[in-house]
């Protein structure tokens, strides 16, 4: 689930890409030239800096092979909104499609129809519950990202105390993997008590309620891992309402403008940044391999970077921050 801040920037970018795309490039291009063909990019949600950065990587890498890029995105991270977009892509018959499935199970039927139509499919960011539909899958190793969050939070709280996870959506592979990676890693800290995970359904208000209720039952709470922007936003509000913002540490996920502002304000003390540009580049490379008769890598995992205020001012920190335009 992604932020819908920066909607205008993404809409403008999508419009620009659509203007230079011809659509209907045709399928069944395995072997031979792919120059002039079109690939479609269907991110999880419109206007998110993570997906904008990924789109920049896709666009740059596709241009090297003479491919055109068409982008359409749902307004919310919701399979019921993404499915008709996929159906529209099928009707256009591009050579390939890169997609971040919004639900591991619900997106299987529409993507099965896309495959049956001869469209090469590459997964980015999120995954499917069924193997064999996609040529490749390129995404952050979210379990490793969750483990990095556990290490960062443990360091912030002196390796002792009580910690909570706020997961943004049950069933989304990214949310589940971040949670599970955190849970496995936090076991390595014997003086930290894990209070479990609760789901906020991408609602800041629900995350606030979760933190408020947790503090009522556990006033000695010391840390929160918020698995996305909205979870972090709600957690920060709950801590401020309780006057605990200086006592409870928060680790967030992603490094878009909103997340960086949260870090700079002190709402979170660390961020786990992904590499969306590289995900886009590698996803195109694997799709091109498939389209030209070569064997793509079935699965590629990218790493994360832990950013604190100190790291943010460094070159590595600045490079890890997501883009709002290409």
From TrEMBL:
<keyword id="KW-0732">Signal</keyword>
<dbReference type="InterPro" id="IPR028082">
    <property type="entry name" value="Peripla_BP_I"/>
</dbReference>
<dbReference type="Pfam" id="PF13407">
    <property type="entry name" value="Peripla_BP_4"/>
</dbReference>
<protein>
    <submittedName>
        <fullName>ABC transporter substrate-binding protein</fullName>
    </submittedName>
</protein>
<feature type="domain" description="Periplasmic binding protein">
    <location>
        <begin position="39"/>
        <end position="295"/>
    </location>
</feature>
<dbReference type="InterPro" id="IPR025997">
    <property type="entry name" value="SBP_2_dom"/>
</dbReference>
<feature type="signal peptide">
    <location>
        <begin position="1"/>
        <end position="24"/>
    </location>
</feature>
<comment type="similarity">
    <text>Belongs to the bacterial solute-binding protein 2 family.</text>
</comment>
